[in-house]
Write a structure and sequence with these properties.
InterPro entries: HINT (IPR039384), Histidine_triad_HIT (IPR001310), HIT-like (IPR011146), HIT-like_sf (IPR036265). The protein is of the alpha+beta class. It contains three helices and five strands. Strands 1-2-3-5-4 form a five-stranded antiparallel β-sheet, covered by helices on one side.
Length: about 140
């Protein structure tokens, strides 16, 4: 999707309205139109980046700071006892909007959302093999 047609880029430019909760020079946060719970907020960089692999590392402090501030504000406003920060990369991971964004989802005791199922490696050797394989890509 081109930046000219990207809904999040248009929101960041003020061309499409949003329920803004936070803004600084690099980041914008606004309520999700289809919330998991009221207060579900999206945090986006104002500049267009497709996914995590395309975001410059220099943006990380601004994003992390916004996630921390907005997460605390969402908890305060909703009375949530916690929150999830979710971010999807690629279709198979559930990414549907190809402008990187983070979901802040307020959580409540007994809200029924749960976490994803956890698996296990067959044995310690299989786990070490996977660790070595991942590490080898970091060296490239």
């Amino acid at each position: 999707m081109s930046e000219e047609k990207c809904i999040f880029c248009l929101i960041a430019k003020g061309e499409i309205p949003c329920a803004k909760v936070y803004e600084d020079d690099s980041v914008l946060a606004f309520l999700d139109l289809s919330p998991v719970h009221p207060g579900h907020t999206l945090v986006i960089p104002k500049a267009h980046y497709k996914d995590m692999l395309h975001v410059p590392c220099e943006l990380a402090p601004a994003v992390f700071s916004a996630l921390k501030k907005v997460g605390a504000a969402v908890m305060g406003a909703t009375g949530a006892s916690g929150f999830n920060v979710m971010q999807n990369n690629g279709l198979s991971a559930g990414q549907t909007m190809f402008h990187i964004h983070w979901h802040i989802i307020p959580r409540f005791d007994g809200d029924g959302l749960g976490a994803w199922e956890q698996g296990k490696y067959p044995d310690a050797a299989a786990m070490q093999d996977m660790a070595a394989k991942v590490a080898s890509y970091l060296e490239k």
